[in-house]
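Reviewer 2 asked us to include a model.

Predict the structure of this chain.
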Amino acid sequence: MRYSPEQKSRSREKLVRASASLAKQQGFAGSGVDALASAAGLTSGAFYRHFEGKGELLSAIIETELEATCGRFAAIEPRDEEQLFLAIDAYLSLAHVRHPEAGCVLPSLASEIGRAPAETKEVFERAILELLAVLSEKVGDVPVAFAILNQCVGAVMIARGLATDSAKRQVLEAARKSARESIGSLLSPSPT
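Predicted model (structure tokens):
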């Protein structure tokens, strides 16, 4: 049976999004093609009509997920402290820690991307640099944007590894405070 290009595109998008959710929750390396395809309601045969292998799917997940993250941050007005604080607070929340399947790809899959082939790392690097460009525009400083990105991702990763909500909250609050201070020092007028 032949599928229209639109239907094939929708099927591929569904596969990428469902696989991303599963991989962010259970890990990418440990999820087989059958499980990744099944998450989208497809067969492994359908998977191979869209991707040559798992590595190609991981690259597509990275592109799609980080493009969505860029879009969310692009909606923030440049140098708008309040909007930046709201975005950071949402990122550094217990809800984000508890629901990796619905959250950012970075805390869930960065270590797996680090073990991926060079082609996947190149896709990741391009996507990270695009995200950094967006964040830099919003805070007005490249090193601070990169530091905030690293701090937020690291805090979520660490919080996910902790056993108690009180310890998780402590990690998240420390990162929130530091990110707010960094942004505040850049955007708030200095007293004269």
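The chain has a mean pLDDT of 93. The chain has one domain: 5-187. We have added this to the supplementary material.
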